[in-house]
Design a protein that fits this description.
Strand content: over 45%
Low-confidence stretches: 1-21, 612-628, 633-638
Shape: elongated
Oligomer: single chain
Strand order of the largest sheet: 46-47-48-49-50-51
Radius of gyration: 32 Å
Distance between the termini: 18 Å
Number of strands: 58
Number of helices: 0
Mean pLDDT: 85
Length: 667
């Protein structure tokens, strides 16, 4: 720094803490009980489940709670799961080791498993556990997956039960077999390329039948009955359906559901049968032989079990887990799972509201596990936005604008005079209501009793946000961003003309942000100028703030974070976030981020979002390895100047200024 009037200064930069340095976020699924693609019930009523990605769960309370009992990284596929009595076996691929193909046996404690088989080649499949607790498998030992034999684990090693076993021919060469052991120790094996095989002598001899039927499912829970589910097959010239044998596979009788693909079967001790046919749940009425489709709103499932006196459970990862405790008369489940969660809000009482595209509003009370819905028709099915003000929650929907004053129990339509959808809703500083519609902005000054056109009549207005100073911003489908400084009575262009707007948001400083394809725009002067930040190759659907500086963006490619009010961006962390397309973001009262996804549920950040104000100091107070002091401006100066500096990482910084005599003159 030079100049006649400039004092000569020294500068010391101290890094006091690194709380502002963002750590990757991790996420927990708060949609409710996870959806499982595989459910297996043991003879004792234990239910084990997996979604195929590193985790195995178990329920001992008829499917109401599923704590994890095996936790591997998500890149570890769970290929098979079987259970009987209190024994559970799982076949996995662990890509971290050379002998990646492994069979694990549960020791009845969470995350306590014994590895009973390892190999670099996928030997041993079609796991089975007998009533006596012995683990069996099929060994496709010819290396081509075209033949196999029964092997068993004796507690220390694997061996074949007999010396000269007959082979099971699998002409397709595909990984083969669904299998089971019935109560008489008959081994029942079904092949996807056709045929059911039964052996009463540990595989010494095999009896074959139904060779033209592709077998997908076997159930042997009823005494002296073998149930199989098959698929229609053009090459085999069969129509599929369900078959039963009461003589150990010597003869079979069709039970119906022909022309369907049967992927799961369940049998109650009373003889009542359930089946998954093309993903839908059916119940058999014994008196007529009719199969009755269960009312589950068209959801498709991959697995089905019965447990207890009247409990039926159907599940898939996409549809979630649904449960009936009255033999299929009524069903309950995580109806939010699999939905597009387009908007999220928290009420003053702590209730979390989610708006979906097609299924209306859901609510979760503080401390509640799962979500509830109001009565059908209480709101529009497509919910685009929420606003919370004065103890009321407002919802913009395809059926107009709705309001609840009792935390979502009851809703009323307050926009009867508005034609079509109310996409966006905002509450102005004077308490007036604003609705973005197909025909511009509608305004009400009497709590929704009457409405009038307030501007932008030729535009579809999809987004609105209110600044702390009362300025209202609106985003339209084709005209970009508009602003109003008189509570929505009049509107003017705000300088950003885009046709790809996905969201508009305002932080506590009154700076307005717009999410578009590729990144964000920010204006710090009410739209006079805009700064662009590009950081993703997809749309930015939602924005959420943690204080004035930290910004989070929900995008087509996950969640991004900015520590400097949108200047720079980086991935915020996606561990635990099963769906990368994030449609909505919100912050709860404990400063945890809520993320609504495309057909993937709702997630909550495990730790609090990064604070924008540091109130305490933890960790190192050491000096940085390198710093840079940039040119001051203006130079020369009198009586003030601005100093810029550079450090390696984002940190809390204390800047001390000294004169040449070592006296501190500013800090």
């Amino acid at each position: 720094m030079t100049g006649r009037n400039a004092p000569r200064l020294g500068v010391l930069i101290l890094v006091l803490a690194s709380l502002a340095r963002a750590q990757p976020l991790t996420w927990e699924d708060i949609t409710g009980t996870p959806g499982f693609d595989v459910l297996v019930r043991s003879s004792t009523g234990l239910i084990v489940a997996t979604n195929g990605r590193g985790l195995v769960y178990a329920s001992t309370d008829n499917g109401r709670f599923f704590p994890p009992i095996l936790a591997y990284p998500s890149a570890t596929p769970v290929l098979e799961l079987t259970a009987n009595g209190d024994r559970v076996a799982a076949r996995i691929i662990d890509p971290r080791v050379i002998n990646a193909y492994q069979i694990l046996l549960w020791n009845n404690h969470p995350n306590d498993w014994s590895r009973i088989f390892t190999s670099s080649f996928p030997y041993f499949q079609a796991l089975m556990i007998s009533d006596s607790g012995v683990v069996f498998a099929i060994d496709p030992y010819d290396g081509n997956f075209q033949s196999g034999r029964i092997v068993r684990f004796d507690g220390s090693s694997w061996s074949a039960p007999g010396a000269d076993q007959a082979f099971l021919l699998n002409q397709s060469g595909d990984p083969f077999f669904v299998s089971a052991i019935d109560q008489a120790n008959n081994f029942v094996v079904g092949r996807p390329d056709g045929g059911i095989f039964v052996s009463a002598d540990y595989g010494q001899t095999w009896r074959s039948s139904l060779l033209n039927y592709s077998v997908n499912a076997i159930n042997v829970t009823l005494p002296n009955q073998i149930l199989i589910g098959t698929s229609s097959s053009t090459p085999l010239h069969t129509v599929g359906g369900i078959f039963v044998s009461t003589d150990s596979g010597r003869s079979w009788r069709g039970l119906g559901l022909s022309n369907h693909s049967i992927t799961s079967l369940a049998a109650r001790s009373s003889g009542r049968l359930y089946a998954l046919a093309d993903g839908s749940v059916y119940k058999r009425i014994e008196s007529t032989g009719e199969w009755r489709l269960q009312d589950l709103a068209g959801r498709r499932f991959t697995s089905l079990v019965v447990v207890g006196a009247d409990t039926v459970i159907a599940s898939s990862e996409s549809a979630g887990l649904f449960l009936s405790t009255d033999d299929g008369v009524t069903w309950s489940g995580d109806a939010l799972r699999g939905k597009d969660i387009f908007t999220i809000a928290e009420s003053p009482a702590g209730n979390i509201f989610t708006g979906t595209l097609g299924s209306g509003v859901f609510r979760s009370a503080p401390g509640q596990l799962g979500w509830t819905q109001p009565a059908p028709g209480s709101t529009g099915d497509y919910v685009y936005s929420f606003a919370v003000a004065g103890g009321a929650v407002y919802a913009g929907t395809n059926g107009g604008l709705y309001r609840t004053t009792d935390e979502g129990v009851n809703w009323s339509n307050i926009s009867s005079s508005i034609s079509g959808s109310a996409y966006a809703v905002a509450v102005a500083a004077d308490g007036g209501l604003l609705a973005g519609t197909d025909f511009g902005i509608q305004r009400s000054t009497d709590a929704g009793v009457s409405w009038y056109q307030a501007g932008l009549a030729g535009s579809k207005v999809f987004f609105m946000a209110v600044s702390p100073d009362g300025t209202i911003y609106a985003g339209s489908a084709s005209g970009g961003v508009y602003s109003s400084t008189d509570a929505g009575a009049s509107w003017a262009g705000a300088g950003l003309a885009r046709d790809d707007l996905q969201t508009v948001a305002v932080n506590s400083l009154g700076h307005v942000f717009a999410g578009v394809y590729g990144g964000t725009f920010r204006s710090t002067n009410r739209g006079l100028t805009w700064d662009n930040a590009s950081f993703t190759n997809g749309y930015v659907y939602s924005l959420q703030f943690s204080g004035p500086q930290t910004v989070y963006a929900g995008t087509y490619n996950g969640i991004y974070a900015s520590p400097d009010e949108g200047g720079t961006w980086s991935p915020a962390g996606d561990s635990g976030l099963a769906q990368p397309v994030v449609l909505s973001l919100a912050m709860n009262d404990q400063n945890h981020i809520l993320a609504g996804t495309y057909r993937g549920g709702i997630y909550r950040s495990v730790r609090q979002a990064a604070a924008s104000i540091v109130n305490g100091v933890d960790g190192s107070t050491g000096l940085p390895l390198s710093t840079g002091l940039l040119q001051n401006y203006p130079n020369p100066f009198n009586p003030k100047t601005e100093l810029a500096f550079a450090i390696r990482n984002t940190d809390r910084v204390s800047l001390h200024i000294y004169d040449l005599l070592g006296r501190e003159i500013a800090t």
